[in-house]
């Protein structure tokens, strides 16, 4: 009974083990079916991968060829049009949304422009270098121009300063000379009166148009006349000198209306007034007493003596008048002791007078 019980238990265990084996066999068959399906799918995927790899290689080759063609096209565009490919529409005057023109028309226009370019002759390969050289020259000339403009401004400033100082000194000297002139005129004439005056140029008169002038010429003339009228002023440096004299017993009048002797005395008054203002070492007077009578010659000699003693000026008088020669300190003359032989003779009148007084 125990053996039968164990045998029954073993059969049950055997049946259970057989059922487990059958279940495992079923799972194995199912797994092998899945593996077979997976192998089949893998083969299909590997085949698709091989096709895709070949397509990729072909696409990469086509892409490289396209990039190469694009680079060559871009290079041709730069060589022919001198711009980047993305700038060609702007160079051609088209917008991105515009309809492109006909290819045949563009080709014809391109050929025409190429022919026109070829007729222009060869390209100057040194143009860029020459342009750089010219740029350097232009820069240097511009710097020189700036220096010249600055120098002109400084020069104009210096001229304005000199003119301003010149006007001041001229007016001061004019007043001094005029004062001395009035005093010397009274001494030489024994009375009367005289004075100096500056004669300024007149202002621009009314503009007279030329009937044959063009409107541009008339406009330029009017602008120049307006500028001259606006800038006009009485400038002592541009003024002349007027001499007004009134000898004793005569009315005040211009120098040109006086007689020859009066003009000579007036001119001597003006000359000596300048010497009193700015004395010179030597003053040469040539025949200034020729138009004078004896009374005026005496006044002239007296004035020369006063100026010689009061100033450092030495007077050299060329004269034929006996009174003038008698009033001088030393005489120099030329005599002909023998025919054709000239001899210089000098006489010291002061020494002669001293010797005579000593006798």
What does it look like?
This protein has 359 residues and is mostly helical. It has 9 helices and 7 strands, in the order ααααβαββαβαβαββα. It has a 3-stranded antiparallel beta sheet, covered by helices on one side. Strand 4, helix 7 and strand 5 form a beta-alpha-beta unit. The chain is rod-shaped and about 215 Å long. The model has no long low-confidence stretch (mean pLDDT 84).
Keywords:
mainly alpha, 7 strands, 65% helix, single chain
Describe the secondary-structure layout:
Elements: H1 2-81, H2 88-92, H3 103-119, H4 127-189, E1 193-199, H5 215-231, E2 240-246, E3 253-254, H6 260-277, E4 282-286, H7 294-310, E5 314-318, H8 322-327, E6 330-338, E7 341-348, H9 349-358
Helix pairs in contact: 4-6, 4-7
Question: Numbering strands along the chain, what is their spatial order in the largest sheet?
Answer: 1-2-3
Q: Estimate the global geometry from the Cα principal axes.
A: rod-shaped
Q: How many helical stretches?
A: 9
User: How can the largest sheet be summarized?
Assistant: 3 strands, antiparallel
Q: What's the pLDDT, averaged over the residues?
A: 84
- Structural class call reads mainly alpha
- Give the helix level as a range of percent: 55-70%
Count of β-strands: 7
Written as H for each helix and E for each strand, in order along the chain, the element string is HHHHEHEEHEHEHEEH
Cα radius of gyration in angstroms: 61 Å
C-alpha termini separation: 215 Å
């Amino acid at each position: 009974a125990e053996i039968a019980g164990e045998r029954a238990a073993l059969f049950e265990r055997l049946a259970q083990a057989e059922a487990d084996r059958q279940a495992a066999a079923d799972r194995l068959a199912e797994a092998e079916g899945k593996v077979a399906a997976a192998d089949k799918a893998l083969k299909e995927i590997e085949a698709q991968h091989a096709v895709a790899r070949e397509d990729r290689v072909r696409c990469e080759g086509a892409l490289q060829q396209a990039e190469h063609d694009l680079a060559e096209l871009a290079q041709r565009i730069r060589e022919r049009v001198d711009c980047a490919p993305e700038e060609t529409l702007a160079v051609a005057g088209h917008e991105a949304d515009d309809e492109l023109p006909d290819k045949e028309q563009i080709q014809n226009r391109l050929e025409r422009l190429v022919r026109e370019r070829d007729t222009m002759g060869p390209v100057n390969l040194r143009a860029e270098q020459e342009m750089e050289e010219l740029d350097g020259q232009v820069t240097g000339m511009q710097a020189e121009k700036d220096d010249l403009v600055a120098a002109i401004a400084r020069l104009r400033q210096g001229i304005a300063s000199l003119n301003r100082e010149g006007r001041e000194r001229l007016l001061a000297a004019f007043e001094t000379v005029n004062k001395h002139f009035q005093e010397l005129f009274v001494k030489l004439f024994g009375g009367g009166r005289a004075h100096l005056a500056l004669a300024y140029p007149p202002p621009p008169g009314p503009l007279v148009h030329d009937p044959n002038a063009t409107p541009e010429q008339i406009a330029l003339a009017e602008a120049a006349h307006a500028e001259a009228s606006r800038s006009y002023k009485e400038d002592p440096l541009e003024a002349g000198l007027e001499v007004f004299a009134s000898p004793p017993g005569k009315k005040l009048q211009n120098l040109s209306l006086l007689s020859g002797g009066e003009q000579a005395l007036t001119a001597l008054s003006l000359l000596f007034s300048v010497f009193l203002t700015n004395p010179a070492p030597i003053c040469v007077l040539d025949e200034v007493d020729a138009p004078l009578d004896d009374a005026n010659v005496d006044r002239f000699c007296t004035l020369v003596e006063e100026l010689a003693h009061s100033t450092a000026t030495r007077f050299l008088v060329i004269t034929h008048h006996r009174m003038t020669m008698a009033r001088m300190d030393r005489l120099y003359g030329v005599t002909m002791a023998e025919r054709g032989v000239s001899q210089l003779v000098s006489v010291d009148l002061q020494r002669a007078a001293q010797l005579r007084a000593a006798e």
